[in-house]
Amino acid sequence: MKREIEQIRSFNRFYTNHLGLLNEHILNGPYSLAEARILFEIGLHQPVTAQQLTSLLGLDKGYLSKIIKMFTSDRVIVRTSSEEDSRVYEISLTSEGSKILSELQGKSDQQIADFLKRLSGDEVDMLVNSMKTVENLLSADYSNKILSHQVNYREGLKPGDVGYLIYLHGVLYARESGYSQEFEGYVVKTFYEFLEHYDTGKDKIWLATYNEQIIGCIAILAKPNNEAQLRWFLVHPVFRGTGVGKHLLSTALTYCRQQQFNNVYLLTTDVQQRAIAMYMKAGFMPSASVEQKQWGKTLHEERYDLDLSENKNKVA
After folding, report:
1. What is this structure's pTM?
2. Where in this chain does the record put each HTH marR-type domain (predicted)?
3. Which of 185, 244, 246, 254 has the largest CB neighbor count within 10 A?
């Protein structure tokens, strides 16, 4: 943890220095950085109360009161009694305040654009996505459900997707289940066989992405006798318990019902208890179990089946 703390402190120093490039008076404007920040928030949330600004900015009430008085004197804001409570004053920008804010925003936008010119398009995407993640993780009300709200879902494969899915399987199963590198070779083989016979009309794969990076996957492969196999169901640990896995599983099984498969089956091991709980909640039942020594472990390979012949099972 000591190394992580030092890295965060180092980033704090770096970013403080970076913000210092704005100087004491932001972009040579009439107000300091702190004052301009208050003006930005008023423009963003108007009409807004002083109490709301205190909560938004985490500022001392006395300091904020002085700034409000200065803005009022400069005629950049106007205070009016709230219609709901005459004791409460709401703050809004005047036309002069809107003009000053627009100029500040324009200069700020230009400064950022000039900074980004030295980066490639991919580097800009990396920077913006990283900033979004930092903002999420450091927010006062953070939970991984906040991240899940920014997860996107797509169907089908793009170049590079399979390689990354193989990587995820190799890393996560080694870390969490103790599987050897032989397991990664097994995953490579299964994806190779899949791509050899990939029929987009019958075989489906759905991906969950965050910041354009894959964090979840599930696939349905059509099999003889009107059966389907569920494969490669995986969710990154950070996003477990957020509904991402449930969404993927529900999407896959809805497709199976629409295609009127008689049966859906999957193969797993007894190590994957969390996934098994989801399968059984969705209606899958154990149908076979064989003890095997593979991937550096002694484990039970298990088969689970979901009977759809009467379309009687529902997704939980």
Report:
1. 0.73
2. 1-136
3. 244
